[in-house]
Prior knowledge:
By secondary structure, chain B is α+β, with helices and mostly antiparallel strands. Chain B has five helices and nine strands. Chain C has one helix at residues 37-43, and strands at 6-7, 11-12, 19-24, 27-32, 50-51, 58-59, 72-75, 78-82, 93-95, 97-98.
Amino acid sequence: xxxxxxxxxxxxxxxxxxxxxxxxxxxxxxxxxxxxxxxxxxxxxxxxxxxxxxxxxxxxxxxxxxxxxxxxxxxxxxxxxxxxxxxxxxxxxxxxxxxxxxxxxxxxxxxxxxxxxxxxxxxxxxxxxxxxxxxxxxxxxxxxxxxxxxxxxxxxxxxxxxxxxxxxxxxxxxxxxxxxxxxxxxxxxxxxxxxxxxxxxxxxxxxxxxxxxxxxxxxxxxxxxxxxxxxxxxxxxxxxxxxxxxxxxxxxxxxxxxxxxxxxxxxxxxxxxxxxxxxxxxxxxxxxxxxxxxxxxxxxxxxxxxxxxxxxxxxxxxxxxxxxxxxxxxxxxxxxxxxxxxxxxxxxxxxxxxxxxxxxxxxxx
Amino acid sequence: xxxxxxxxxxxxxxxxxxxxxxxxxxxxxxxxxxxxxxxxxxxxxxxxxxxxxxxxxxxxxxxxxxxxxxxxxxxxxxxxxxxxxxxxxxxxxxxxxxxxxxxxxxxxxxxxxxxxxxxxxxxxxxxxxxxxxxxxxxxxxxxxxxxxxxxxxxxxxxxxxxxxxxxxxxxxxxxxx
Amino acid sequence: xxxxxxxxxxxxxxxxxxxxxxxxxxxxxxxxxxxxxxxxxxxxxxxxxxxxxxxxxxxxxxxxxxxxxxxxxxxxxxxxxxxxxxxxxxxxxxxxxxxxxxxxxxxxxxx
Lengths: 365, 177, 111
């Protein structure tokens, strides 16, 4: 059994930020990730981030990732890679499988779960064919592994993930022959859709993919128009020559560990579905367990980093590493930045949804 | 505060076709007014949605771009202060700014736009200039390709093209390897 | 399906390791040590990684981050290995998996 002050599960933007905050506060922290490298999905974000200077605006995601890794290294944070957390007991103990064969146990005074989210699927005829994949999967292939997963891509979904990955597929040298959106209006930022449009990528609103055809892998894709009740309109089918279909239909928080631990869960569709109830300190219904990033509601990397810091600050304070005044001061700064990121027509809904979760927590207390 | 800036802006074009219409753009505070449109190099800020973002404001050394404390406000261009230097172009994470100059030559206008594809064009190349829908409008001659590292892999391309397409042209067609 | 040698943002390809040879269904494939098996296979033009148990349908890469288990193959005799999160080692023996796969062969096989 290994003992530590704080164990952070997941070394993505939220987990890295949380671990850095804890280490800076003086806590012993162990950062755990199942992958061979830390960084989570941050290293496949090759676009410049939005926001203000405090949010690293104008800086590409992977550069922010490099900066976080450098800080973690300088703080000598113990990073356990190739480690899958398979069990959580009593709110303070983790069972970890390292390298898929060695069993390890870790006891922490505080646990921060920053496990992220997973992509949603859309089922249609032929969706299991090789060549149909998550948009994030295609992004991983092009930006991390530097392999083009297909040459002619149909993107399902026009939210920010769909349009950003479409742009990055063009940058990688693939063609995006259609972005298909079931809703009558496009979902992602207009600056992203405009980039695609001037590159000649057509958008099909009120359309969906009916079928992916092919023997061993995708050879063509049939799209169809949807009526006002979202039902396919017969006779409007179009067969597009394509070898790849990417699905960008939102993400679902990875809450398995929070559920295993017995954290109270609520259902907030606009944040991706089931999320652990948490307070303004990112603390769940179990006192020693905190959440941060997409597990606490799907947003974006910028908010995930802020939430990570928030959880790290409060976990450290609960260990007596910050005075109540200092805790409040640090927390206030981060909340100001979070409020900015959750403003405007794209952010307002997320802010309200987060407030709803936080109000639940205060009711149970 | 300017009235157009206060207006709650909602672009229909960008939500249906992917790109704002010209009518919508002329009403946004980042688009140069008629008075400055044809008067020399000037920035066109095609930012039509209230997203929390403000790097363009601090990128401008002349204070020609204002967003203010509420960073979801649309950037407001004071075209009288803008010299068309292009420093704001690579600062925009949305690649939504370019500089055009109607007075470049007798028959040709010029444009500087951000470009993040390979292969890059070379000085002297003749390329296809496109509008917001990706439709080719005319040929363009590449005048400059700036790959300065301070722009972090966002290249700035300057091209000259037929003045008659001054309003329509926003970029160039991607080159094929 | 090919490697991205030059990228406008990420620059020239920086391989994860030296070039090594692996065996895929008996055919030699050149891969980079340390890259994910699935990446090496897709770079070589392979998209079908396994066939399902009942209907013998082809399956390939789907999530690329080790969650969906659609890309599992027999690696060094061990079936159900997630190729999207398993790094290439020199001389690896990789086989298309049929159904739930079978144990055996390779260095780690249980016979």
